[in-house]
Amino acid sequence: MNELEFEKLLKKKDRKIRRLKREKEKLEEENCSLRKQLLLYENAHTPPSLQRKKRIPRKSSGKLGAPKGHPKYEREEPEVTETIKHPVDACPHCNAKIHIKKILEVIEEEIPEMKKVRVIKHLIEWGNCPNCKKRVMAKNNAPADRFGPILKSKITLLKHDDRLPLRKVKSTLLRDHDFKITHTGIMKIIRRVSKKLEIPYYEVMKRIRGAGIVYIDETQYKLNGKTWWLWTFVTNKEVLFVIRKSRSKEVIEEILGKKYKGIICCDGWKVYESFSDKLQRCWAHLLRESNHLKDKHKDFEVYHNYLDKTFEKIKEIRAKPPGKKERIKITGEMRESLLGMTSRMKKNVSFRKFARKIENGINHWFTCIENLEVEPTNNFAEQALRELIVQRKIMGGLRSEKGAKTLEVVSTMIATWKKKDKPLLETMKGYIG
């Protein structure tokens, strides 16, 4: 091989090396991008609705029926609204008179047949007073629009409590009441109901602002194709939903006020700590992330078991609480023990980020021991969101800010009435009648 051929070969190999380097860089970028996307579906906080891998089924205990100590379900005996007597006076075989009669009681429960919508025409007399010349109209209970309060309440509950899409609301009304209405008509009725419920909605917001303990959570919600945030604020008696563009501290300040002095139960999102130092961090989130690390790293099992036992100890203390001074002392000891565990955990690079997360919230893991009214988890807020997350899967998202306002107002009132064990149809009818 002469010198010219050798140089050509070198250039050819050099071009090949540069091409392979470019391909390698491109593949590394794609790999990094795909890993980031995969993290959305395979991390400790991925909700079941977004998980791609199948869940491992729980092992059966081998025992059938309810667990030991589970209360028996006993249905209340209904009140009899109608009695039908079936007499027998003579034997149907020989026509002899029956003297000794015993009564067999059989209870039947039945729903009434389809009730058609009542169409009521209001004839309201009016005229001009011959003396003062003013217009006088007869007192009446005619509605401001075409539809009555029961019908409007039922349509709203079918959509927002029964979670039916518009076509199902339409078909249900046709089947049960022979009532025909368009999709647009349904939406207009629900918006009118929402307008009527705005005053009680803002009253719920005021009561939440004055509550001593609030459970807060947030999740994404698509509005006209863009990402907005659905927030929930929950107390013992109220549930509030708001939909905002932001996931920032400004939303908390808007709802609770800048000088809120109560305790907030929340996850580890940084805006809560920037808003208040009176927090209870959610142990359910912590244990979920810990369990995820345990599945990925065998070495982490000892730390997960420690956190699991710590949570069990929290529940035991809350079940049989000592005095306030003793609880404060226990809190300090548990905090020191937790810090000691995180210092050991940080020696492993894979666990360092999780250890820092625990350390950053070290003053907020045991608030529930000092204040027994505070729950150690944020389950109240997560459970409140679950209903609207199901609706999100059905609807796919919202199309306008008007739709967002309707959703937050109606859902707030329904969830609050449920929390107070109020009958939904009667309560809603009372507000819009």
Descriptive account of the structure:
With 433 residues, the chain is an alpha/beta fold. Among the domains are: 121-211 and 219-256 and 402-433, no CATH class; 283-370. The chain has 15 helices and 7 strands. It has helices at residues 3-39, 149-160, 166-177, 183-196, 198-209, 249-256, 270-275, 283-296, 301-319, 324-345, 352-360, 367-370, 379-395, 401-419, 424-432; strands at residues 126-128, 135-137, 213-223, 226-234, 239-244, 263-266, 279-281. The chain has a 5-stranded mixed beta sheet. Strand 6, helix 7 and strand 7 (279-281) form a beta-alpha-beta unit. Helix 2 packs across helix 4 (183-196) and helix 4 packs across helix 14. The protein is extended and about 120 Å long. It starts with a helix and ends with a helix. The model has no long low-confidence stretch (mean pLDDT 89).
Characteristic key phrases:
433 residues; alpha/beta; two-stranded antiparallel sheet; 15 helices; 7 strands
In short:
By secondary structure, the protein is of the alpha/beta class. It has helices at residues 3-39, 149-160, 166-177, 183-196, 198-209, 249-256, 270-275, 283-296, 301-319, 324-345, 352-360, 367-370, 379-395, 401-419, 424-432, and strands spanning 126-128, 135-137, 213-223, 226-234, 239-244, 263-266, 279-281.
